[in-house]
DNA sequence: TGTACCGTTCTGTTTTTTGCAACGCTCGTC
DNA sequence: GACGAGCGTTGCAAAAAACAGAACGGTACA
């Protein structure tokens, strides 16, 4: 649903996204000339150019940035109101849009969403799995209601609605010698080849911080931006990988892979944080899902905020 | 400035205000039929009627209430963004809309606004003086950015941004016997005829609360909803009136009227509160004015919040 | 120096919005 | 109980806005 009367707002949004009138026009199924006129008319009404014209396309001006944010906020808020009107009509429909780190794609989110949908049928989900920078981008563009990230850089336009204390886990094959032990220390892991998450995965920052002030030398045989890749790798050999607690199969061995919490006294800790765009009204379904998420996390570990 | 593309939103807003298509059409300078079609088209797009049709006119449905609030929020937020864009262009323009109780109309607001405008030329003000119920209404309808009220009933959609502890004052002629004293007690006032603020003025609630648990019997000779009326009345006789501190000329005798703080140990107190609509982004000028207001109040009395 | 892509303008066409007159309806009143 | 005043609503033609397609002028990159 996009409401005929907000057409021009959608135009501006798309032009900013595509960075070009012609590309935007194609996506909007109108001609470039028509789109161009709408942009120019709006600029005339505002008395300010919203875009800088370059040979390669259009870039937002400062005023454009401001206005675009307003446009996206309005479009998102309209969707929320529309959802609440549907709710009044008795239709329990709605969508929750989530942007999350990879770690949550493995078990937490799928299971939680499945359970939530059984209790609240009619509510649909959009889940975007991406790195933590893209999570913030999605929140800012009103493409996600909630962002779930490990080690997010604080930003003044984001509000942290929940923080869950997370410990680091070593991930290994079920038959791995370390799997036989209850407690695993970091120096135990370093006896084996390591499959490391790459720098734009949250867990990496923690590991770097540890190695920086340690004399232990890691033997990295694989580095990847995919937890799935790392997990599948360690299944068939004696390598050890790392992941944050919430993303690991602790209690049950799944697909021949298991995990153990790393017991390390002075290990740097970083919480898993749930964030939203500051000052935004979340749609009702997102509010309810957040409550379910909080309940889930409280039963699982330490919820800080 | 109202932006061509939000035309239909203005239509809905006006229809809700006027309660009738024909009256709204007249104010909007279009025909009733054209307006009617826009309303119907919008309802069709939303899949829900926004208005109930009666022989006397249109009344909002539940969905209509919801949507109207969104419309007004959107229009107000657009004004804010437009102001910030003007700000980018170097034009320091903007408007601060205030809804306030009568008590503030006497000296605080006029003086503060005057001073503020000297420091920030180009910023204009809209001040609506009304009873505290209308203040809340104006905030809800996005007609006011800030509401200044004495004894506001708490509401879930209002956010209190500031509270100033207020004491009650006795107001009397400059030559009144009580004016010769430094400290005035309630029972001193009751020696004289009283000019009482009427029930929908904030100060009245306090007085009622006091009399309810006191054996003193007030001799009320005048009751009015206008502080100006009360003040002018006591000037020429020995009657005593009441007003909250912020609205009274304490230090200087103005127009032959003066005031003294009432010293009463267990007197009920109610703060003057500054409120805004919860979850709303205030325009930049309003934010700056609020800061000036806070500074002023801090120099004048006890700011609680 | 060409070529590919960009935003833009000009033309006429299509779609949307509007005004006007008329209709059906519900109220309050004579 | 008829009647007028007010209301929302509907057809139809006119006006206005948005549109597509071809052509123009420019910049960037090979």
Structural overview:
- The structure is a homodimer of 305-residue chains.
- Chain A is α/β, with parallel strands linked by helices and 305 residues long.
- Chain A has three domains: 4-69, Arc Repressor Mutant, subunit A, CATH 1.10.10.10; 92-165 and 271-300, D-Maltodextrin-Binding Protein, domain 2 (3-Layer(aba) Sandwich); 168-261, 3-Layer(aba) Sandwich (D-Maltodextrin-Binding Protein, domain 2), CATH 3.40.190.
- Chain A has helices spanning 7-18, 21-28, 32-46, 62-88, 108-119, 132-140, 186-189, 202-212, 227-235, 284-300, and strands at 51-54, 57-60, 94-100, 123-129, 146-150, 158-164, 168-173, 194-197, 220-224, 240-244, 257-261, 272-277.
- The radius of gyration of chain A is 23 Å and the shape is elongated.
- Chain A binds chain B through residues 1, 3-9, 41-42, 45-48, 62-63, 66-67, 70, 73-74, 77-78, 81-82, 84-86, 88-89, 279, 281, and chain B through 1, 3-9, 41-42, 45-48, 62-63, 66-67, 70, 73-74, 77-78, 81-82, 84-85, 88-89, 279, 281.
- Chain B binds a DNA duplex (30 and 30 nucleotides) through helix 3.
Tell me the name of the CATH homologous superfamily of the largest domain in chain A: Periplasmic binding protein-like II
Q: Which secondary-structure class do the elements of chain A indicate?
A: alpha/beta
Largest interface: A-B, 32 and 31 residues
Mean pLDDT of chain A: 87
Rg of chain A (C-alpha, Å)? 23 Å
Strand ordering within the main sheet of chain A: 4-3-5-12-6
Secondary structure: helix percent of chain A: 40-55%
Determine the number of helices of chain A (DSSP H or I, runs of at least 4 residues).
Answer: 10
How many β-strands of chain A, per DSSP?
12
Share of β-strand residues of chain A: 15-25%
Q: What is the H/E string of chain A?
A: HHHEEHEHEHEEEHEHEHEEEH
User: Gap between N and C termini of chain A, in Å?
Assistant: 35 Å
Number of domains of chain A: 3
Largest sheet of chain A: 5 strands, mixed
CATH architecture term of the largest domain in chain A: 3-Layer(aba) Sandwich
């Amino acid at each position: 649903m996009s409401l005929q009367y907000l057409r021009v707002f959608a135009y501006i949004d798309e032009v900013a996204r595509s960075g070009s009138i012609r590309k935007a026009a194609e996506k909007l199924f109108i001609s470039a000339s028509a789109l161009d006129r709408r942009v120019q008319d709006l600029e005339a009404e505002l008395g300010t150019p919203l875009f800088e014209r370059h040979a390669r396309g259009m870039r937002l001006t400062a005023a454009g940035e401001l206005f675009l944010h307003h446009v996206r906020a309005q479009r998102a808020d309209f969707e929320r109101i529309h959802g609440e009107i549907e709710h009044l009509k008795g239709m329990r429909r709605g969508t929750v849009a989530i942007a999350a780190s990879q770690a949550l794609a493995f078990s937490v989110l799928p299971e939680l969403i499945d359970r939530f949908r059984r209790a609240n049928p009619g509510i649909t989900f959009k889940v975007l799995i991406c790195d933590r920078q893209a999570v913030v981008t999605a929140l800012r563009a009103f493409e996600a209601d909630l962002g779930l990230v490990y080690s997010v850089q604080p930003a003044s336009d984001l509000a942290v609605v929940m923080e869950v204390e997370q410990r680091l886990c070593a991930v290994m094959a079920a038959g791995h010698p370390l799997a036989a032990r209850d407690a695993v220390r970091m120096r135990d892991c370093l006896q084996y080849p390591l499959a490391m998450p790459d720098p734009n995965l949250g867990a990496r920052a923690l590991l770097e911080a540890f190695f920086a002030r340690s004399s232990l030398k890691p033997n990295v045989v694989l580095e990847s931006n995919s937890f799935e890749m790392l997990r599948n790798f360690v299944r068939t050999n004696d390598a050890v990988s790392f992941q944050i607690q919430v993303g690991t199969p602790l209690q049950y061995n799944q697909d021949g892979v298991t995990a153990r919490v790393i017991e390390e006294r002075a290990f740097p800790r970083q919480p898993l944080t749930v964030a939203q765009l500051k000052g935004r009204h979340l749609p009702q379904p997102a509010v309810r899902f957040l409550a379910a998420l909080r309940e889930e996390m409280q039963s699982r570990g330490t919820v800080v905020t």
